[in-house]
Amino acid sequence: MPEAITNIPMTFIPILVAMDVFAVLPMFVSFTSDMTDTERKTIIRQSTITALAVGLAFVGVGEAVFRILSITVDDFKIAGGLVLLVIAVLDLLRYSGERRKIEGTVGVVPIGVPLIVGPAVLTTLIVLIDHYGIVPTLISLVLNLMIVWASFVNAEKITNLIGKNGIVAISKVMAILLASIAVMMIRIGLQNVIK
């Protein structure tokens, strides 16, 4: 258990970067701008619970799917790293307002999935579980969802404090970090395959 606790920073930061709450905040504000406080609280609760449920379901089913398809974790690291790299590059090249297309109902989709928990987060979860174990990864997922929840509760204050340009800048830095994590995943996967 002490080792699991020491691994929390190693799992917390990649999930934080993959979630990129600063990219999600402006969209959340625009979706909920015409809502009452009660409606906004319902949306916040729905989105965080959905994100947690999808994350846990993917963690539970992911490894079974790997076994059925004969996919190794190193295969997933390389493929997942490439996916993360593409997502990061697209985020860097686009304006934040164009980051993802919005469709469907607001609470569960698109805020819960794919804005909070999308391909980047799901890929990161599987790789982190293989690398650091399930306990620190799940603790980090919950801690990050608590940060998302707190950010949504104070969304307008944060947006006003940082400003639109500040949020775009932070989001771009997060995309660069995500690209770096993607390259690291590809490198580790290739090294293990070559060995």
**Poorly predicted segments:** 96-104
N→C terminal distance: 30 Å
**Overall domain count:** 1
Query: How would you characterize the largest beta sheet?
Result: none
The Cα radius of gyration reads 17 Å
Number of separate helices: 10
| DSSP E strands, number | 0
Q: Which bin fits the share of residues in helices?
A: over 70%
Proportion of β residues? under 5%
Please write the string of helix (H) and strand (E) elements. HHHHHHHHHH
Structural class: mainly alpha
Give the integer mean of the pLDDT values.
Answer: 87
What coarse outline follows from CA principal-axis ratios?
globular
Summary tags:
mainly alpha, globular, 195 residues, 10 helices
Structure, described:
This protein has 195 residues and is an all-alpha fold. The protein has one domain (2-194). The protein contains ten helices and no strands. The chain has helices at 2-6, 8-19, 21-32, 37-69, 73-93, 107-116, 119-132, 134-153, 155-162, 164-194. Helix 5 (73-93) runs antiparallel to helix 10 (164-194). The protein starts with a helix and ends with a helix. Residues 96-104 have low confidence and may be disordered.
Secondary-structure map:
Blueprint: H1 2-6, H2 8-19, H3 21-32, H4 37-69, H5 73-93, H6 107-116, H7 119-132, H8 134-153, H9 155-162, H10 164-194
Helix pairs in contact: 2-7, 2-8, 3-8, 3-10, 4-6, 4-7, 4-8, 5-7, 5-10, 7-8
